[in-house]
Amino acid sequence: ADIGFTSSTVPRMIVGISTQSRVISYGACLTQMSLFVLFACMDNILLTVMAYDRFVAICHPLHYAVIMNPRRCKLLLLLSVFASLVDSQVHNLTTLQFTCFKEVQVASFFCDPPQILDLSCSGSLIKNIVTYVVGIFLGFFPLSGIIFSYYKIVSALLKIPLSGGRYKAFSTCGSHLSVVCLFYGTGIGTYLGSVASHSPRKGMVASLMYTVVT
User: What are the record's GO terms for cellular component (predicted)?
Assistant: First the structure.
């Protein structure tokens, strides 16, 4: 998912820098947006699943093998792939509904879904519905699950008497928590911020954070 997520934007950006060409065809733009949304959504859900995995490992260590059995892991993986495909197609179908565009320039280094939706000169209701529905189901709910998991993890760690054991347990969550903060902080801020006043420069910096740095 990470390789696909990065590969959907970075190679095209490098080609653009080396050739000094910022032109992309309509079909290529839709393809890039579709792949970007697919892998971004998959990353999004998998980060939530990883938080749940850490919650089970730290709070219910004796039942870990039973709860996180291979069948459940496969089910969670299939769920993340299915939800990602649905989200990708919803964005594509929404964009294909637009027949009028205010301009043909995207204020980003790739075909960012919020930027593409903002280019339409009609269908603002559909655009807002898609933005908020996707933001709630793939932003609010997963992030709530991560926050709840870490609330339980921190509560469990505070009950551990030895600081060494507490540090060892929490160190397994450090890298995941860092990626969650970068990914969700910049991603949701960019996505929901595009509905209100949006600064192209700040948007590009935020996009660079959640597409490349994480």
Answer: plasma membrane
Q: Give a three-class secondary structure readout of the chain.
A: CHHHHHHCCHHHHHHHHHHCCCCCCHHHHHHHHHHHHHHHHHHHHHHHHHHHHHHHHHHCHHHHHHHCCHHHHHHHHHHHHHHHHHHHHHHHHHHHCCCCECCCCCCCCCCCHHHHHHCECCCHHHHHHHHHHHHHHHHHHHHHHHHHHHHHHHHHHHCCCCHHHHHHHHHHHHHHHHHHHHHHHHHHHHHHHCCCCCCHHHHHHHHHHHHHHC
Q: Tens digits of per-residue pLDDT, 186-212?
A: 776 666 655 555 566 666 777 777 777
pTM for the predicted model, two decimal places: 0.82
Domain ranges of the chain: 1-162
Q: Residues 1-162: name the CATH superfamily.
A: Rhodopsin 7-helix transmembrane proteins (1.20.1070.10)
